[in-house]
């Protein structure tokens, strides 16, 4: 079997980031919290005395318990610069009813806007609204709506 299971975000403050994704982007708790440590985790991560806490949140638009956004914190978190054109994982995208009002919720909950909110029409006649933003810890998210 092959199936997509989750995307992991390492947070400086897991509880704050979990609250952001639940409140702003409609992710929901599925009751899978984690408080992990042990020799097996040290071996898996390559980090001595690793300790992970966090929760799995079901992504909006899915009825069951997958796929999830796995938000974890380690006791020690490394910081790095995130930019929209950095190689590797760039952003998480969420289709929303109203990009403008969702962007305002992002900003009211500690996020920031990247670039401009853009409205465009494609050759097939579909119209879309897009905005890039960051969550309250600087992870890049894309907001989009289609008509």
TrEMBL record:
Matches recorded under InterPro entries: Glyas_Bleomycin-R_OHBP_Dase (IPR029068), Glyas_Fos-R_dOase_dom (IPR004360), VOC_core (IPR037523)
Record Pfam families: Glyoxalase
Domain VOC positions: 3-146
Membrane-spanning intervals of the chain: none
Domain of life according to the entry: Bacteria
Protein name: VOC family protein
Organism, as annotated: Variimorphobacter saccharofermentans
């Amino acid at each position: 079997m092959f199936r997509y299971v989750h995307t992991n975000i390492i947070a400086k403050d897991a509880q704050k980031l979990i609250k952001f994704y639940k409140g702003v982007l409609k992710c929901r708790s599925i009751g899978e919290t984690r408080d992990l440590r042990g020799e097996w985790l040290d071996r898996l991560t390559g980090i001595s005395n690793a300790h992970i806490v966090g929760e799995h949140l079901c992504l909006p638009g899915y009825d069951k318990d997958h796929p999830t956004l796995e938000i974890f914190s380690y006791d020690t978190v490394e910081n790095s610069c995130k930019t929209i054109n950095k190689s590797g994982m760039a952003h998480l995208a969420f289709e929303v009813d109203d990009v403008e009002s969702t962007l305002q919720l992002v900003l009211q909950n500690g996020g920031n806007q990247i670039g401009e909110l853009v409205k465009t029409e494609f050759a097939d006649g579909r119209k879309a609204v897009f905005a890039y933003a960051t969550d309250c810890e600087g992870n890049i998210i894309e907001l989009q709506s289609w008509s």
